[in-house]
Amino acid sequence: MKSPGSLICSWEIGIFKQVIPLSTTLTVSMMSPKEVAITINNLTKRFEDVTAVDGLSLEVEKGELFGLLGPNGAGKTTTINILCGLLKPTSGSVNVGGYDVQKRPDKVKEMIGVCPQDTAVFSYLTGRENVELFANLHAMPREKLKKNTEDLLKKLGLLEEANRHVRKYSGGMRRRTNLIMALVHDPEIAFLDEPTVAMDVQSRHAVWDFIKELKKQNKTVILTTHYMEEAEELCDRVGIIDHGKLIALGAPEQLKSKFRTKNLEEVFIQLTGRKIREEL
Amino acid sequence: MNFQRVSSLVRKDLKKMIRQPATLFLIVLFPVMLTLAFGASFGAIGGTQSATYQIAVVNMESSGPYQQWSQHFVENLTHIELLNIQAFSDNETAQADLIQGKIQAVLVIPGNFGQSCDSFWTAPTNPSLWVNTTLQLHLDSGSMFATQAIPPIIQQVLTATLYGTQPISIPTPIQIGSPSLIQASKTTMFDYMAPGIFAYATIFLTMTVAQSFTEDREKGLLRRINTTPTTPTEFMISQAISNMAAALIQVALVFAMAYLVGYRPYIDVVSFTLAFIIVSIFALCNVGFGLITAAIAKSSGAATGISFIFIMPQMFLGTFVGAALSPSAQVAGKFMPSYYVTDALTSLFLRGAPVSSPTILLDLSVVTIISGISLLLGILLFRKYGKT
Ligand SMILES: Nc1ncnc2c1ncn2[C@@H]1O[C@H](COP(=O)(O)OP(=O)(O)OP(=O)(O)O)[C@@H](O)[C@H]1O
Ligand SMILES: [Mg+2]
Q1: Cβ-based contacts of A123 with chain B (< 8 Å)
Q2: In the listed set B118, B152, B176, which residue is the last one of a domain according to the structure?
Q3: B233 with B118, same domain?
Q4: How far apart are CA A110 and CA A189, in angstroms?
Q5: Are A124 and B20 a contacting pair, CB within 8 Å?
Q6: Number of Cβ within a 10 Å radius of residue B175
Q7: What HEC string does B69-81 produce?
Q8: In this structure, is residue B30 part of a structural domain?
Q9: Which residues of A make CB contacts under 8 Å with B?
Q10: What is the pLDDT of residues B51-98, one digit of tens each?
Q11: Is B21 on the interface with A (CB under 8 A)?
């Protein structure tokens, strides 16, 4: 009589599962009753010896700019890799743009633009060729492709260098190319994994302006960052994760007033007793 | 399948081949240098290996009052150590041998040769009384040495015959007709090796493919492409197209180089096309080996080393080197796809076999089947183990 026993067991888990997302959905729906773009449902990802993501549940609305914050190794990149279909979850599920990523990765890939944390550009191509290649991989019509490429290179200050081989670019120029390649095809949903790391102040502000524009176009963006001021400047809401678990969720202002702190860094310290990033 | 995606990926790969010096070296320079090196050491550059030239002499003046002149001339030729003189009774047989490369030159002594010589000695100072005539000399154009060395030697012997041994420079009634060059296929070591070199040219694709995949993987570029709607099929098709293009360029270059150093196979357009098809299919086989290598290798450095597991036996057991090996090594060679490519090209180029002959069809099927298996296995292994 094994099967009834296991049935009861799974019921219990089922009830337990629903508790956490319920509370989060509640806060979200109170803010704005909008369409949901991304749902992360009790997501767990284990590598051989580490649990990178541990029962994470989240919802991101359409048109929302959502910040994923957390110290090194918190599980931000792993979460993004699962959202764009590069990694399989150990358990739980993710839904992007109305499709289960595991079941319809083809549909999801048409909607998303991914800017990887580690710069991935073809060094033997020019900046423009890199950007156009990714526009072509998204099968963009030729005229729009040319226009978008030109616009983005200009906005991020790469137009003059666009015909040089990326091999000869500086690190910051490569980072900017890396970002343009993710967004040239005008994706509905963008995953930006630390897009401004290693950029000078000027480039960082150019990228910020650019990300704000995405928001005006009602794009959904998940942004990971180490820079607290970046999150405060850009994000509608942030989720702070530590050891793969969501430990705080809300608008930056909301979190700051709730924890009575001046900034998000201090929120993290209050929650964990640690700094998000050890001083060097 | 989306054409825009595939073509943009192919263009990217071709740019990579052109813009990266290391890749360009492996793909273009290496096969070209190889051909030149083998051409120089095995006979295409430099004519026959022995230092003597086989020359057919057709003497049209075998009888008549002045025939001792031509006999004397032939005798003098025979004394030249560099030349091996063979008397032929008619021009046709001699020409046939020239075309087959058995001999390097045909010298036709005209019927009025003796008369002409005699007329000179009758009136050495009065050219208007001379009976003028022409010696016909046909040379093998495929041998640089034959075309360069033989005419002056014959001129020298002719002068000696006419004037005796003292060297004098005076006008003579006999001219050597400007040598008419015959396209003769003279079989040298190089002819036996050329098909193997054509197969050899694409073997290094294994290394370039393995390096390219491991590098792109290390830089996160494969993952990045994987976040776009590009399907694995589209990606692999683009790889197949760009590598086949590289293979065709390689073989065309090697063929052009071989032609430059004097290689002239018996071949028509159909056989030529088939040769290119076989080599392209073999290129896919090497792409497959490259993918298998990339799946096993943990880094691009390791990929270079591992690719030699495929390259070495293909090179030493399967191509032109194979003929010089021990019998057991030759048996091992039959497990190499390059062996069947070499065999098919040898049949086409050296033996002049028609494209529909059973040997060639068998070789073609074996190469196709092995290439299919290699490519499929490569794709499967790479998808399972090679992506991260
Ligand atoms: N392929 C992998 N194999 C094994 N462990 C992995 C792998 N990828 C990530 N991890 C582990 O998972 C944990 C989370 O890594 P992840 O890259 O998601 O962190 P992160 O939040 O993006 O950190 P950072 O701020 O440094 O980018 C880390 O402990 C990491 O060591
Ligand atoms: Mg990360």
Answers
A1: 219
A2: B176
A3: no
A4: 10
A5: yes
A6: 12
A7: HHHHHHHHHHHCC
A8: yes
A9: 84-86, 106, 109-110, 112, 114, 116, 118, 120-125, 129, 132-134, 136-139, 165, 181
A10: 577 899 999 887 888 888 888 899 888 887 778 899 998 889 988 888
A11: no
Q: What is the DSSP letter of A68?
A: E
Structural domain count of chain B:
2
The residue out of B176, B202, B231 marking a domain boundary is B176
Inform me whether the pLDDT recorded for A12 exceeds 50.
no
Higher-pLDDT residue of A165, A269: A165
- When pLDDT is averaged across residues B290-310 and rounded to a whole number, the result is 91
Helix (H) or strand (E) holding A38, with range, is: strand A36-46
Q: How many CB atoms lie within 10 A of CB B127?
A: 13
In this structure, the answer to whether residues B257 and B292 fall within a common structural domain is yes
Chain A nearest-CA residue for B215: A122
- B330-369 residue pLDDT tens: 777 788 898 899 888 877 876 667 788 888 899 999 999 9
How large is the ipTM?
0.84
CATH number of residue A225's parent domain: 3.40.50.300
Strand, helix or coil at B83? strand
The C-alpha of B387 sits at a distance from chain A's nearest C-alpha, in angstroms, of 10
Distances (CA, A) of B304 to B26, B222, B299, B308: 12, 19, 9, 7
For residue A109, the model assigns a pLDDT of 95
Do B290 and B363 lie in one domain? The reply is yes
Q: Is residue A150 part of a domain?
A: yes
Q: Which pLDDT band holds residue A190 (cuts at 50, 70, 90)?
A: very high
Instruction: Determine whether the interchain pair A109/B227 forms a contact, defined as Cβ–Cβ distance below 8 Å.
Output: yes
Q: Which domain holds residue A36?
A: 8-279
